[in-house]
Structures
1.
Amino acid sequence: MLLNRLSPLHLLDEVERSFAPLTQSFAGTRPVLSPQAFPALNAWDDAEHFYLEADVPGLTLNNLAIFVTDGRVLTIKGERTECECENGKWLRRERGYGSFERQIDLPGPVNEEQVEASLKNGVLTITLPKAEEIRPRRIQVKAA
């Protein structure tokens, strides 16, 4: 029983409860996008490409700019406009707005001219072909 009382998770719950009145009082404030956390990303690779998906709900192609610098740094820039509350007052505002810029260091160089991006249902998908020098090469084995 003593272990439960001294559990770190229990202490975290107490801290969260103590801050609850403070965070609830800011429920109607205007959140701004965090440049380190927006947009949320998934990234993976295969033998020939790096892939990246970013959640950008409510944005259009006109709100986004994508750059590759030095063949190794991907930058996603954009802006989400503030939502207006006409004929009423805000009860809760959790969706951020404003300009954002997210840079991702790629694990290897890419062929910048062949990078492709598409936007569908609020998901930005970027396909980055790996540079030839980092693609795996199949070695022909000769019989002796």
2.
Amino acid sequence: MAWILLILILVGAWMISRMKTEVDTRVKKIAEAIAAAEGYYVSGSLPQRLNNPGSLKGSDGKLVAFASAQDGWNALYRQVQLILLGASKWYTPDMSIEEIARVYTGGDKPDVWASIVAAKLGVTPDTPISQVV
């Protein structure tokens, strides 16, 4: 009987770790698409110089300069996780990429931003972010 319980515990742990990996993969995929739209991969770009792949802003409305690229990526991953969990102050999981673009870009070429993000994700701009896999 004890070995059945052990098997159930191990299977449960495996399923939880697999779910976490899938979420992490999805978060990273979305974050990389946002970084592309923000110009992070352009050599010498402002997001690259600031170690800020998501062009994230602080409470003062200015772009944040992160100490390292990893710090910037981690902040962007957190932002994407908040969006997908419905815990963001500005975005919801049912918002389309177009709708997110209007807020995220502050009105600065949201159609271009949405097109880049959608193309990188292999979806259309009217796709809700929650449906990106």
